[in-house]
Specification:
heterodimer, A: ten-stranded antiparallel β-sheet, B: 127 residues, alpha+beta, rod-shaped
C-alpha cells in the first residue's frame, strides 16, 4: 500500500527560502530549501543539488559509465551502490504493485522504437550476459527527488521541495502559509489545469506530450505498453496525461505511468485500489479526477 | 459659622466646579477617555494607511559575504540560478540569474519575492 501524503494545514513561519534550478536527468531540476538561517538553507540546497547530480551520474542510461549502463551491459547488480540497488528494488516492486502496467525492463523495446538518442548501444544491451536491460526513466527522477529531499532534511533545513522534470517531492515547512502549492500543466500547452496543496508528499505527471516522434509511418511515444512491448500511439488513447499524488515521488511517477498504459477505467480503478489520488487529462483537454483527488485541491 | 467659614463657603459657591466635585471629576475623566480613544484611532488609521515598502533593493557582494552563497568543496558546482528569501511569508529575495562562476559577482535583493498565487512548483508530462 502506498500511503497518500498528508494535506496541508501548516503555515510558513519566518524562514529563509533558497531556490535553485539546474539541468538534470534530461530535464530541469528545481530545488527549494527552507531553514531558519541562510547558511543552513544554502548548505542544504547544495546537498540536494549534488545528490541529484550524483544520482544522475549513476542512473542515466545516456552515460556509458553509469551503473545502469553497466548493468545493461551485463554487470551484476550487487557491485553497485546502495542507491542503485534501491532503484532496482523500486522497479521490481513497481512492476508487482501495478500488475505489470509499469515495467522498467523495456529498454530493448524503447530502443527498437527509435528512442535511442543515447550512448547506449542496442546491440550491447541485447547481447548482455543477463537478459535484463532497464530504463529507469521516470522512476529514477522520482526516486532522485525523494532521496534529495531526505538528504536536505538531514542537513538541517526545515522544509524542502525537489522537482526533477516535474516529479516533485516536498516535505516540512512550506514556502507559503497555505502549504506547498503545485500547479498542473496541460498536456497540450502551458495552461494550468489543476492545483494541489501538499504538506508532506509527492506528485508526478506522465504524459505523451513531450516525447512523440514519427517512426516507420507511425506516431511513437516513449511510453511502451509492457503487455505488447509496443509503443503506445497516443492518438488511440483516451488519456494523454496522468498526474498522481502519492507519498513519494517515485510511487507517484510509477502510478502516473501505469495510468497512461492502463487508460481511463483501469487507471481509476488502479488509483482507488492503491488509495492514491490522480487527475487524468483526455485528448480533448478535459480532465477526470479520481475519488481522492478533491482531498488535495 | 465663623467669618472665615463664611468666606470659604461663599468662595465655594462662586466656583461651580467646586459645587459638584464628583460630577466634575466624571466629566473630566470622560473627556480624557474620549480624547485618548480618538487619538489612538487616528494613530491606528495613520499606520494602516502607510503603504508598506513593496520593493527595496540591497546589493550583496558575494565575494565578501560567504553567507550569500552555498559553500562546499572545490569540486562543487553551483546551480544556474539561486533565489534566497528572508521571510515571514516571503519578504525578501536574492535573485542570482548568473551561472555558477568562481569570480566575485553581485546579486540583487528584492522585496517581496513573489505573488501569493505563484506556485511552489509545476508538474507536467513534458519529461
Amino acid at each position: 500500500m502506498v500511503a497518500p501524503p498528508s494535506q496541508s494545514s501548516t503555515c510558513a513561519d519566518s524562514s529563509v527560502v533558497v531556490r535553485s534550478t539546474f539541468p538534470a536527468m534530461g530535464n530541469t531540476a528545481m530545488i527549494t530549501s527552507i531553514a531558519h538561517s541562510r547558511d543552513i538553507a544554502s548548505r542544504a540546497l547544495l546537498v540536494g543539488t549534488e545528490r541529484v547530480q550524483m544520482l544522475e551520474s549513476s542512473w542515466s542510461r545516456f552515460l556509458p559509465d553509469s551503473e545502469v549502463s553497466k548493468f545493461n551491459e551485463g554487470r551484476q547488480l550487487n557491485n553497485f551502490s546502495a542507491d542503485t540497488q534501491l532503484l532496482f528494488e523500486h522497479m521490481a516492486q513497481a512492476t508487482a504493485r501495478t500488475g505489470g502496467l509499469f515495467d522498467a525492463r523495456i529498454l530493448p523495446e524503447v530502443l527498437k522504437i527509435g528512442y535511442d538518442s543515447s550512448l547506449v548501444d542496442a546491440r550491447r544491451a541485447s547481447g548482455a550476459s543477463h537478459s535484463l536491460a532497464v530504463d529507469p526513466g521516470g522512476i529514477g527522477k522520482g526516486l532522485a527527488a525523494d532521496l534529495a529531499v531526505s538528504s536536505m532534511l538531514e542537513h538541517g533545513c526545515t522544509g524542502a521541495l525537489v522537482s526533477v522534470g516535474g516529479d516533485i517531492r516536498c516535505c516540512g515547512t512550506p514556502d507559503r502559509d497555505e502549504g506547498w502549492i503545485i500547479e498542473l500543466q496541460s498536456a497540450h500547452d502551458e495552461t494550468i489545469i489543476g492545483r494541489v496543496t501538499l504538506d508532506d508528499g509527492a506528485i508526478a505527471t506522465s504524459g505523451f506530450g513531450a516525447k512523440r516522434w514519427a517512426c516507420l509511418g507511425a506516431h511513437r511515444t516513449h511510453i511502451v505498453d509492457p503487455s505488447t512491448h509496443a509503443s503506445i500511439d497516443s492518438r488511440q488513447r483516451e488519456v494523454v496525461q496522468a498526474t498522481v499524488v502519492a507519498s513519494t515521488a517515485a510511487w507517484a511517477e510509477v502510478y502516473a505511468t501505469a495510468c497512461l498504459v492502463a487508460d481511463m477505467p483501469a487507471a481509476l480503478a488502479l488509483l482507488d485500489r492503491a488509495g492514491l489520488a490522480g487527475l487524468l487529462q483526455r485528448h480533448d483537454g478535459s480532465t477526470f479526477a479520481s475519488t481522492n483527488w478533491s482531498r488535495y485541491t | 459659622m465663623t467669618t472665615t467659614e463664611d468666606r470659604l463657603h461663599s468662595l465655594a459657591q462662586r466656583r461651580p466646579r467646586d459645587r459638584f466635585p464628583a460630577r466634575s471629576a466624571r466629566i473630566l475623566a470622560t473627556g480624557l477617555s474620549v480624547a485618548s480613544i480618538l487619538g489612538l484611532a487616528s494613530a491606528i488609521r495613520a499606520a494602516s494607511l502607510t503603504p508598506a515598502p513593496i520593493h527595496t533593493t540591497t546589493e550583496l557582494d558575494i565575494a565578501t559575504n560567504p553567507m550569500s552563497r552555498p559553500q562546499s568543496s572545490a569540486s562543487s558546482t553551483l546551480p544556474e540560478s539561486t533565489v534566497v528569501a528572508n521571510t515571514s511569508r516571503v519578504a525578501a529575495v536574492i535573485v542570482d540569474p548568473a551561472p555558477a562562476v568562481a569570480a566575485p559577482r553581485r546579486v540583487t535583493l528584492e522585496t517581496p519575492v513573489a505573488a501569493v498565487s505563484e506556485p511552489s512548483a509545476t508538474t507536467s508530462g513534458s519529461k
